[in-house]
TrEMBL record:
The keyword Metal-binding does not apply. PANTHER family: OLIGOPEPTIDE-BINDING PROTEIN APPA, PERIPLASMIC BINDING COMPONENT OF ABC TRANSPORTER. This is ABC transporter substrate-binding protein. It comes from Ponticoccus litoralis. Keywords: Signal, Transport. Pfam families: SBP_bac_5. GO terms for molecular function: peptide transmembrane transporter activity. It is found in: Periplasm. Residues 99-403 form the Solute-binding protein family domain.
């Protein structure tokens, strides 16, 4: 059986518009413009067949899945692949290049604190009504209310400019603002008289129309014959199924699943034996640990945190869990290893130095720290944290990683110590450099939990477009 790759499926389902180079970002006299031939260019030399149903398994459900039983809303959608049903104004390709989607053009003013979007005309929602600026403004205002942190942090207000125009007034200049419009939650939905009802009808502008969803298990969507891009989709139907544990490999073996996203790396050989082709991402998500510093906990001392960082054996995690000892490892920032500004840590691991830092901080005999909560969003996670705990223990640091159900994990974390919550593991996906680094910018994140001269210098470096200064912030 020929397996449809995730890359090809996403290209066919959500092909966008032209690549936007950094030269455009730095020159406000140039407008970003879509390329009508983008889909045909992708398909050049190919003869895709039409028809059929793609059934995919998803081992990584939406982290907000347990927060609502109304799964037709993109915030509570089965997984994070929202573009099967909805579209955004922009999107980011696999090379981290920005492309246009529902926006036909994007133009900034000279100071880059105001951005104007011109929309494609004739884009129809699944119910047959046309998408206009009213829908975009209503959707963006909803996202700014808390659903999309990047919009909440960067946009002061939106403004309608006629039937097909929208203006974004930013909190401060941002040459890379269009990347925020590509977030998987930042989709365009139908405007409603009651803003609280926006999105719950499951109606989008995407290549497939939602017809059935049980957001605890699966969804079914059928081909949108009036899709605004014209070419495709080629499939008649798409179905997504949550596949925890061994249900992913078992479903693939039995032919019930045509593809599986985010497979357990420990099952690669089993999938290959079943005829699968494995496609690895160059970037991937990162696991990071949130250590609230507003309470009287020893890790408030920077020396303790540095000791923890020096003690963790990341190479061992790569070798044992991912079978890739040469893979990149994080540098304690949100920056992805594929970003040009990424700076590899100068010392991968130093247990001796970690112990010296503990002793300097007043803990020569080691230290016991509060438990860290996590839920296994990815199937391999329960195998990661024993390695982390063991490597920390070698430096005299005792931490228990407490596994919790993913259903309701976010409310559990947030139920105490607002706005920081419990100590917990979090996830961050690969983004462009500004988004990666701005997560720790106290001016753009309400829980960055960082003050003082170093925080102000970091913010200054993050908010410049100069690559060399960005690299200093990353380092």
């Amino acid at each position: 059986m020929t397996q449809l790759t995730r890359r090809r499926f996403l290209q066919q389902a959500t092909a966008g518009a032209t690549v936007l180079g950094l030269s455009h970002l730095l020159d406000p006299t140039k407008a970003f413009a879509s390329t009508p031939s983008i889909v045909s260019d992708m398909l050049a030399g190919q003869t895709p067949k039409t028809g059929g149903t793609l059934v995919y398994g998803q081992t990584y459900p939406n982290w907000a899945l347990g927060q609502s039983n109304r799964g037709a809303h993109p915030y509570y959608w089965l997984d994070l692949l929202t573009r099967s049903v909805w579209n955004t104004l922009t999107w980011v390709d696999e090379d981290f290049n920005l492309q246009l989607e529902l926006a036909r053009t994007l133009t900034a003013n000279d100071t880059m604190d105001v951005w104007d979007a011109t929309l494609h005309e004739g884009v129809m929602f699944h119910d047959g009504t046309e998408m206009t600026a009213d829908d975009v403004v209503a959707s963006m205002n909803l996202h700014m209310g808390g659903g999309v942190g990047l919009l909440r942090a960067n946009v002061a207000r939106t403004e309608k400019l006629g039937k097909y125009g929208v203006r974004f007034h930013l909190v401060q200049p941002n040459a890379e603002f269009p990347y925020a419009l590509a977030e998987y939650r930042a989709v365009v939905m139908k405007a409603k008289e009651n803003p609280d009802e926006i999105g719950y009808d499951g109606i989008g502008t995407g290549p497939f129309k939602l017809v059935e969803i049980d957001n605890a298990r699966q969804f079914r969507a059928v081909r949108n014959d009036d899709y605004w891009m014209g070419t495709g989709p080629f499939l008649d139907e798409v179905r997504g199924v949550i596949t925890p544990g061994n249900s992913a490999i078992n479903g693939f073996r039995s032919g019930q699943l045509n593809a599986v996203w985010n497979i357990d790396p420990g099952q690669i050989e089993q999938f290959e034996d079943a005829g699968a082709r494995i496609h690895a991402s160059a970037a991937g998500d990162q696991f990071y640990i949130n250590l609230p510093k507003n309470l009287n906990i020893p890790w408030n001392d920077q020396r303790i945190r540095k000791a923890m960082s020096l003690a963790i054996d990341r190479k061992k995690v790569n070798e044992i869990v991912y079978r890739d000892a040469s893979g990149w490892t994080g540098n304690d920032s949100h920056m992805s290893g594929v970003n040009p500004e990424f700076v590899a840590r100068p010392v991968e691991r130093d247990v001796k130095q970690a112990r010296a830092l503990l002793a300097e901080a007043g803990h020569p005999d080691g230290i016991k720290l509060p438990a860290i909560a996590f839920c296994p969003n990815f199937p391999e996670e329960p195998r990661i944290y024993p390695i982390v705990s063991e490597s920390l223990a070698e430096a005299g640091i005792e931490i228990v990683f407490e596994e919790r159900p993913c259903d309701g994990f976010s409310p559990y974390v947030d139920s105490v110590n607002a706005p920081f919550g419990r100590p917990h593991r979090n996830l961050v996906g690969p983004r462009n450099p500004f988004i990666n680094l701005s997560r720790a910018d106290f001016q753009r994140s309400e829980n960055a939990d960082w003050v003082g001269a170093s925080a102000e210098e970091y913010s200054r470096l993050v908010n410049t477009v100069a690559s060399a200064r960005r690299t200093r912030a990353c380092a």
